Fold tRNA N6-adenosine threonylcarbamoyltransferase.
Amino acid sequence: MSKFSKPVLGIESSCDETGVALVSWDPDQPGRGLLAHTLYSQVKLHADYGGVVPELASRDHVRKLMPLVRETLDRAGLGMRDLGGVAYTAGPGLVGALLVGASAARAMAWALDLPAIGVHHMEGHLLAPLLEPDPPEPPFVALLVSGGHSMLVAVRGIGDYEVLGDTLDDAAGEAFDKTAKLMGLPYPGGPVLAAEALKGDPGAYHFARPMTDRPGLDFSFSGLKTQVLLAWNKSDRSEQTRADVASGFEQAIVETLAIKCRRALEATGMSRLIIAGGVGANRRLRAQLAEAGEREGFSVHFPRLEFCTDNGAMIALAGAIRLAAGQAQGPQIKVQPRWSLDTLDPVATA
């Protein structure tokens, strides 16, 4: 796998975060290629609505993207003419939000006569641990858990992916957000519910570990959400009860994910596990999987917390790796709101 010496500008705009970063990819110096990154979150913009409003998200990306590009270049002490390529999130995600990033990236690439590439959002998450000083080498199993995705992937090489299990309804992060809303917690609910769970007793309420009583690696969290709602409605709804219910719910999610991870490692015969995506920042999940790895003999790798949620660094990295392999794309502006991870082309390692 060759290096890409000039910095690649990465743009993330798939949902409600505008992320920009600069990465110089050199496989012989992992963890050292990140030159600068900036991130703007639209959480306050969408709070009054209790969720992301796609049209508002798109407009805010338009407003923030280019100022963030200039700020990122300034932080790195670079100018536009120092760039070697441009990468952007092409999907999956909100179509309007994706088009903002894609249009800006393609315009910059055309104006500067640079190669450009559309990056799969989940491949960005999957490769985020490569930003760390001691990155995992394929093959490994990846657990990708976020607001829109819960999947297990066998990674035999960069671009060589097999989806082992996926969510049949609510993703883990979505279940966190919806359950928090049902319990009257403010937006964004997932992090607030996780904070409540730290104050509760995980044994006070026991909820099902969905789909762990049958073979397979798919996920389903909608029934768990209903269980929590019924328990909450029958309770005294005190602050301590809220914390206990939140803790029991979180424990059910974490144990379900951990059980499926073990199954995936056993099924593939792999001994490395990476966790990526927004839910990968959850303290209980990180602690329990790390403990399980030490006990059962598999290694566990996480990106740093700031790169668990959506960010430009993961897109710049994924784009730089593919550009280094000669995988630039034509000038057309194309996004894919739905895009299967296992349709990607592999990256040659020679």
